[in-house]
Amino acid sequence: MRIRIISAILLTVAAGGLVACQPTDGTKSSGTKSTGANPGVTGVPTGDGSAAKDDKPTAAARKKVPVFVGMGLQSAQDAAQAQGFYSLKSHDSLGRDRMQAFDRNWKVCSQNYQAGKTIPVDTTLDFGAVKLEETCPAKDMQAPSAVGGKMPDFKGKSVKAARAALDSGTSIDVKDAGGQDRWVLIESNWQVCAQTPAAGAALNGQPVTLTAVKFGESCP
User: Fold this and answer.
1) For the chain, what percentages of helix, strand and coil (3-state, to nearest 5) are there?
2) Which end of the chain is more exposed for a tag (fewer CB within 10 A), N or C?
3) Secondary structure of residue 5 in the 3-state scheme
4) Paired residues of 202 in beta bridges
5) Alpha helices in the chain (DSSP H)
């Protein structure tokens, strides 16, 4: 009987030693999956044990365009942003190429998307504007452009718009048509009275001469 007990104890000890010597699998981890390209990198664990997938970009939301015409430019921009439209720009409705430096001093005359039209909120809204004391034109006045290599008709246009219509390398001389020999500093405040070459002449790099007076003054 004693011999049998001793033998049973020896067998138990031997079996325990064999189990202790078995290697463990250190590559398994609950709740994650290894990527096929790099077995050493695991995905982000999710509740069901699968790796999470990257979120795909969703299409921009769509909303109706509000009525902006008649509003102050700053108020129009604030209202647009409140509706989710953040891509905004503005231009001079009188075609004088003036910058809307202080939005509260300008009012909206036109908008590039009709009120009530449903568009994606990432669409750019463009407001045509004039200064508060000015009257909106029936439609936005277009800035001049040199089409087909011909000299545009600059009469009545701002000196700034005229300069922008010509090649950046063009030599331009601007003179005070009022005979006071004033400096033309803020060109968007001066209107062209006469020009050389004449409208329609071929542009081949020749210098351009403009005479101008301030807006509100009469050309001689």
Assistant:
1) 20, 25, 60
2) N
3) helix
4) 150
5) 2-20, 73-82, 159-165
Residue with tokens 């246009």: 157
Distance between CA atoms of residues 49 and 47, nearest Å? 6
Structure tokens at 143: 């800035």
- Whole-angstrom CA distances from 47 to 28, 33, 36, 70 are 17, 12, 21, 55
Number of neighbouring beta carbons within 10 Å of residue 143:
19
Is residue 73 within 8 Å of 127, Cβ to Cβ? yes
Query: What is this structure's pTM?
Result: 0.68
Q: Indicate the residue type of 114.
A: Q
Using only C-alpha atoms, what is the Rg of the chain? 38
- Tokens 């189990």 sit on residue: 19
Closest residue by Cα to residue 194 from 220, 166, 160? 220
Closest CA to 127 of 72, 175, 184, 57: 72
Interatomic CA distance for residues 159 and 96, integer angstroms: 8
CB 126 within 8 A of CB 90: yes
pLDDT tens digits, 127-173:
999 999 999 999 999 889 988 899 999 999 999 999 999 999 999 99
| Chain-centroid distance, C-alpha 200 | 36
